[in-house]
Amino acid sequence: MNTIVTGLQWGDEGKGKIVDYLTESADVVVRGQGGNNAGHTVIARGTKYVLHLLPSGILWDGKTNVIGNGVVLDPIGLVAEIERLEGQGVAVTPEKLLISDRCHVVLPLHKELDAAREAALGDRRIGTTKRGIGPAYADKVNRNGLRVADLLDEAYFREVLAHRTAEANEILSKFDLPTFDADQQAGEVLAAFTRLKPHVANTIPVLHEAWKAGRTILFEGAQGSLLDIDFGTFPFVTSSNTTAGGSCTGTGLPPTAIRQVIGVCKAYTTRVGAGPFPTADEGLADYLHDLGREFGATTGRARGCGWLDAVLLRHGCMVNGTTGLAVTNLDGLDNYETLRICTAYDIDGVRHELPPADRHAWDRAAPVYEELPGWMSDTTACTAYDQLPENARAYLTRLSELCDTPIQFVGVGPDREQTLVV
Ligand code: IMP
Predict the structure, then answer these.
(1) Which domain holds residue 388?
(2) Could you identify the atom of ligand 1 that is nearest to the CA of residue 114?
(3) Is the CB of 272 under 6 A from ligand 1?
């Protein structure tokens, strides 16, 4: 069954673990958006792997992994990631990994422009990962970006890059930032591309053939629904469609190819970067950080933590068409006495069950909470849903009701075995 796995919060929901679990029965794993701003931690057979751009199926033999056209690809970053993985004994061969020739390329100058823009925004900065994601997508929409196919034509690539570098240097010099040498940049990108070239293909017919042959395709979402450029907490979002629709435009597989959408959320909420976070709670954050939890896989940043926010999850389930929920990190709440779930926002005395579009309304959104008793016991050894403490099951049932979506998976620890199927 072709399945999209999408994050329902601000990323870091533990999608990597759910994807890894579902990969066992998948033939093809494909990514359709984002870039190496993502950081998926997967623990398999006792080893920890951190993936940024590579689909999680790369950790398995005999699976096809596809980096789809909607991804922005940093060749230098991807080669470093491949080498790191190969150092851990994972083979990355052209049989296992295909890269769409339509992916837009993240250039070194995009990373510098990302940093320059953040610096210029000062207090209003987005808190990006500085991986050049926004500027690379901006060039795509602006129609002056370079695609993987353009890297195959070295003369053309150098010519366009020289032009693009001159434009970027104008901006960088305004901020007294180091400017770029187009030739040096071209050399670095092309050198990295040598390693990637055997993987480049028109991935659209490959995916369609897999679909027609009835092979199982897994769409691995990166970031989360609230970072979606259209449906997220704009402008504090990433630059791609992280919700289910992005899986179609980012791969060339149509909506009719998809049978189920699994929305992944934590049993609480976390967020990195700037922007609204109505249910943020310092007590919960200290508690989770003291347990050594909630530090970013890509940047190492301590994440902000807060209560489960059903307003946001309800919205996420709507726009994704979520058919089932995967709730991760339930064990993070094992020893918390009283838990809260936000069921609505009070904005100027009016009850809102869906998030506002007006960016200033967020500052006035007061969460309306429901309190539930904690379960005060260890869930990490549970191997089936009915082994979970009664209060934990009641918490999950309430979440399911508030989102009008059934619970399909529950995560009680980082290992592959600690994923309970409901
Ligand atoms: P960008 O994607 O680097 O442009 O960053 C935009 C926003 O998305 C920032 O708030 C980042 O912290 C956030 N972001 C991007 N990728 C991830 C991710 O994989 N997990 C969590 N947050 C992310």
Answers:
(1) 265-421
(2) 4
(3) yes
The reply to whether 208 and 62 lie within a common domain is: yes
**Residues 387, 320 share a domain:** yes
From the CB of 38, is ligand 1 less than 6 Å away? yes
25: domain CATH number is 3.40.440.10
The answer, yes or no, to whether the previous bond of 235 is cis (omega within 30 of 0) is yes
Q: Residue 297's pLDDT is what?
A: 67
Q: Are residues 138 and 7 in the same domain?
A: no
Is the beta carbon of 39 within 6 A of some atom in ligand 1? yes
Looking at the DSSP bridge assignments, the partners of residue 351 are: 346
**Dihedral angle computed from the Cα positions of residues 2, 262, 25 and 92, in that order, rounded to the nearest 10 degrees:** 90
CATH code (residue 126): 1.10.300.10
pLDDT digits (tens, 9 = 90+) for 183-219: 999 999 999 999 999 999 999 999 999 999 999 999 9
pLDDT tens string 123-164: 999 999 999 999 999 999 999 999 999 999 999 999 999 999
d(CA 48, CA 51): 10
Q: Which of 17, 74, 223 gets mutated to test ligand 1 (max ligand atoms within 8 A of its CB)?
A: 223
